[in-house]
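Example record used in the benchmark description.
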Amino acid sequence: MRLLSALLLVLASAVPASADTLLRIEGKKFIEPAGREFSIKGISLGNWLMPEGYMFKFEVAKSPRQIYAAFDSLLGRGRAQAFWQQFRDTYITRDDIRFIKSVGFNTVRIPLHWRLFMDADGDVTGEGWLLLDRVLGWIREAELYAIVDLHAAPGGQTGINHDDGPGYPLMFYVPRDRQLTVKLWRAIARRYAGNPAILGYDILNEPIAPYHDVSTLNPRLEPFYKEVTAAIREEDPGRIIILAAGQWSSSFDMFGPPFADNLAYTYHSFWASTRRDSIQRHLNFASRYDVPLFLGETGELTDEWNARFRRLHEAHGIGWAFWTYKNLDTPSTVISIPRPDGWNEIVAFADGKRKDKPAEVVIDRAIAQYLDGIRFRNGVVRWSYLESLGLKSAP
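Model output (structure tokens):
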């Protein structure tokens, strides 16, 4: 029965739909198929299909490759693979998606790592496809929308650990990495063409670090977006494309007027002023070209700051997606995962601060508690965080 249910969800996520079932852009607004304006109130599923070290409390093992290596050393390759399979099956489930709907979110942003969807030779294969199929089925079932976000592109697009690259945004330098990225987006668009659960495709997360050669890289960003958009539209016409600002999604200076229809523009902002001056440059860009803005990532501060920054954006008609839905032992998230016993020893080993492995009994207990703690039923709901987003408060 479980297998049949999963199959039905996969089929539901792949059912084609006509263009009039998709959201669209009109001026600065997102418009639902029925013609109503849609204001994005979203949450990102960080760490699930794109692990980040700080969400495990690691300070040195930050990138996915470092995290995977740490768990290989800790558990051995076979046990580590079993850990990641259980992690991905458990971290986000139907219960999580139903809860997200129940508290008032209307959108789920899904960060992806390319290696879960494509191998090093460019073959479009990997366990990520069925996981994405499944969550899109749950999202459609819950009457939510999804934003599919490429958080880690081949070669890396940011120049930091966020993209699992070598510390430099090679995707903008290496033709093969660029080609693989376009190929992956084409495959995504082909698989989910017409899927009404998808609001749009967020092409790159936080491209081009500000301390790299921005004079060379910035002029390459919009032409790359044009290339990807053309490939996507051949497979999935009418889909909203979301274009991230440069310098870690903070600047639109390298963009001209929209080069296609149904384009939206996203920026990220953490710990900024809650006054209008912090977003005025983005408002100017939107007014100049009559295009919609989307605050794609924000949060991870205090509830008071969340509320003020959210209200600032809503006052200017800008939708948002906070970061992140689930995290380990923190008040700045929707669901806080309980910290396992002995987790500090796991962290010290992963970060290389201790050379000897913790005792097997410590490892076994900590890993078991972590995998149990990431289940929805065992997480701690931070109701004040939800209230700060203008959503459902504690029952």
